[in-house]
Amino acid sequence: MSVVYPNDKIASRWAGALEARLRQAPLENFLRSRGQKWVLAGDARVTDNIACGCIYLVDGALNAFMLESRGTLTISQHPLLGQIACAVSHGLATLIREPNAWRIAALVSTARVLSPYSGLDAAAHIAAAAARDYSAALNAGTRSGEVVQIGDAASFAVESNDEERALHVMKLILRRLSSAGAGTLADSRPPSLTYDLSAATINSSST
């Protein structure tokens, strides 16, 4: 019997892959335990999983906002939702130590949650502007306290995989959207998962 040892280059690659998987495990566990789509392999694995986690949290809050306001998003609220998606994506990317992955995940997340209200083309433009503005504020250290709080709360919720903390993130997002006002057009998307938060009901349609 002979034992084959990998050379230093291969051993380093294996060690790096294992370390990356361990870093990403909290996000994968969070998605898997909630029946969300998650990716184990592929070049876009990290950004896809961050985007999925972001969509789960933001869309749950957005559905609650629709029920509470009995309306839809105003045009002026679209950039705000983009900033929220950027904050959540940044928080999750920071958690798994993939700091450069937040931007693409935020673009995907913003376009996904906004497209039912603005159309895909407009949502893509809003997503690009939101990512640009968020990046500029991040580099300048001028992000608003509410945005930072939402991003930090998302990171804690995913790291702990705790349902109460996940609902807390949705409540923070709901409160921020509510403070910016509501529209009057009816929202036709059917809700699926429902959570009773006393003052509001959280629904997630991202399953």
- Beta strands, count: 2
- Beta-strand share of residues: under 5%
| Overall number of structural domains | 1
Which term fits the overall shape? globular
Strand line-up of the largest beta sheet: 1-2
Mean pLDDT: 81
Supply the number of helical segments: 7
**Structural class, from helix and strand content?**
mainly alpha
Outline the low-pLDDT stretches.
182-207
* Biggest sheet character: 2 strands, antiparallel
Q: Report how far the terminal alpha carbons are from each other.
A: 50 Å
Indicate the radius of gyration in whole angstroms: 18 Å
Order of helices and strands: HHHHHHHEE
Share in helix: 55-70%
SSE layout and pairings?
Elements: H1 8-33, H2 45-69, H3 78-95, H4 102-118, H5 120-140, H6 145-160, H7 163-179, E1 193-196, E2 201-204
Antiparallel strand pairs: 1-2
Helix pairs in contact: 1-2, 2-3, 2-4, 2-7, 3-4, 3-5, 3-6, 4-5, 6-7
At a glance:
The protein is mainly alpha-helical and 207 residues long.
Explain what you see.
By secondary structure, the protein is mostly helical. The chain has one domain (26-204). 68% of the residues lie in helices and 4% in strands. The protein contains seven helices and two strands; from the N terminus they run H-H-H-H-H-H-H-E-E. The chain has a two-stranded antiparallel sheet with strand order 1-2. Helix 3 (78-95) packs antiparallel against helix 4. The longest helix has 26 residues, at 8-33. The model is unreliable at 182-207 (pLDDT under 50).
